[in-house]
Amino acid sequence: MDKTWNNKAWFMVLPVLLLVAFSAVIPLMTVVNYSVQDTFGNNQFFWAGTEWFEEILRSDRFHSALLRGLLFSFIILAIEVPLGILIALNMPRKGWGVPICLVLMALPLLIPWNVVGTIWQVFGRVDIGLLGRTLSQLGINYNYVQNPLHAWITVIVMDVWHWTSLVVLLCYAGLVSIPDAYYQAAKIDGASRWAVFRYIQLPKMNRVLLIAVLLRFMDSFMIYTEPFVVTGGGPGNSTTFLSIDLVKIAVGQFDLGPAAAMSIVYFLIILALSWVFYTVMTNYDVER
Amino acid sequence: MSVADDKLMAERKGKFDQASSMPPNAQAALARTMRRRGEQSRFWWLIPTLYIIFLLLPIYWLVNMSFKTNAEILSTFSLWPQQPTLRNYAVIFTDPSWYRGYINSIIYVVMNTVISVLAALPAAYAFSRYRFLGDKHLFFWLLTNRMAPPAVFVLPFFQLYSAFGLIDTHIAVAIAHCLFNVPLAVWILEGFMSGVPKEIDETAYIDGYSFPRFFVKIFMPLIASGIGVAAFFCFMFSWVELLIARTLTTTAAKPIAATMTRTVSASGLDWGVLAAAGVLTIIPGALVIYFVRNYIAKGFALGRV
What we know:
The structure holds two protein chains of two kinds. Chain A is an all-alpha fold. Chain A has twelve helices and three strands; from the N terminus they run βαββααααααααααα. Chain A is 73% helix and 3% strand. In chain A, a hairpin with a 5-residue loop joins strand 2 and strand 3. In chain A, helix 2 packs across helix 12 (256-287) and helix 7 (148-175) crosses helix 9 (193-221). Helices cover 75% and strands 1% of the residues of chain B. Chains A and B meet through strand 1, helix 1, helix 3, helix 4 and helix 5 of A and helix 1, helix 2, helix 3, helix 6 and strand 1 of B. Strand 1 of chain A pairs parallel with strand 1 (130-131) of chain B. Chain A: The chain crosses the membrane at residues 12-36, 65-89, 101-123, 160-183, 208-225, 259-280. Chain A: It comes from Paramesorhizobium deserti. Chain A: Residues 66-277 form the ABC transmembrane type-1 domain. Chain A: One of its GO terms (biological process) is transmembrane transport.
């Protein structure tokens, strides 16, 4: 759609601008402020320059939290995306099954994140949870509280449970937009199931898939509440992802400088990813 | 889709046109085999069914627990309550420290939804209809706020709202949640508004409508479903968020989610009440989800599907 040039449109954007400036710009400036200063209490601050940034970028703690976050995100994507496509391909396209599938699949997306954590914490407990109890009956020594591997598996399965439906719904939205004529043409060509998927369904899905991958990557990269409720970042530090570590430093230890420097590094990573997301979205809009 | 693919598709479309000159019976048979073989195999329903069972099992376990007594939860292991009890729900509906949590959550979530949608409506209109200085940068900046990790904002939010004396008020949480909900509402509404042809605006102006009157009387009914979807997503994201809500409240505006975490860390774990509280937080989403089922993908993709 061709748009008219009109700078008065700024007045319509103004309320949003003020609102988001209040809840984003001012807090971010506070963070920037802390990241370059040191304090010995009593509200006395000293210029510290890039000291905190150097400390953070060199610290093993930050590196390992970052690596854990990236590893977690990649595992999540490797499971959720293929699984989501598989389920979306096999969902009914018409009839009574459609609303049932959509509503039931969307259900986990609407549960408060800490309740998701609580559900899985209870579900995985060996004494009272269905999953933990079943596994121990099968002779598996499952214990997510003490075994780091089990904690990781629990958190990953929880995230798959929580968010795969997002991939499913997005792929499904892409799939239903394919006209029947395409399938009929493929049938006449004698195309195999794989060829239909590769040359008709995948090209139609690739943009929604890209959106799904980016959203899942960013949201899993900043995951906090669910693993915090289930494992509290433990055992040890094994499930301490970037957000959990940041809140520990900022609120738990009240180390303002390092926490602020870490926030900014974290925010810059997210900013770069947002830019990729934005470019993808707007390119799509142009082609539309 | 690339040019080569388009060519291929045009070729296939040609073959399809040939096929449509077939007798109706053959066409119907073709459509049937196509649906059977090309599109989906015979056991297609197995995968979604298994997936839905996987989704519902943990939820079922929570519901199951919420109807048991604590003694039964801890002593016996059963797939359904042996002595069903409503005691856990009774505790929540009679104890103010529990039901106040729900009221607090609903108050700030509704405030946030109203603020977000009202502020986003004109902005989304501006983004969908006009070009103006810095519009693309602004749109991108809004997106970065939706993507920003709440953990980054916890500490500065606490200090900012302390400075304004807003800690432990509903409006503090409502405004703080605007951080990610306003951008979300702007993006979703912009997606819906761009689907309305511009000619409608122009015709209305020619007919002598003033802008506010046009916006309320003509434009808003046209994007009513979009407003509904945006409101639903604001409601939802404010409802599921815990970290910021918990940081900004202590007692008077404490959300239900935070009340639950407190109970988890308290000494005697009241599993039954915890499960009942969890079940009650799922209900609002489960009730409205049916109305937005066709727009859920669009909402999660920020209005871009």
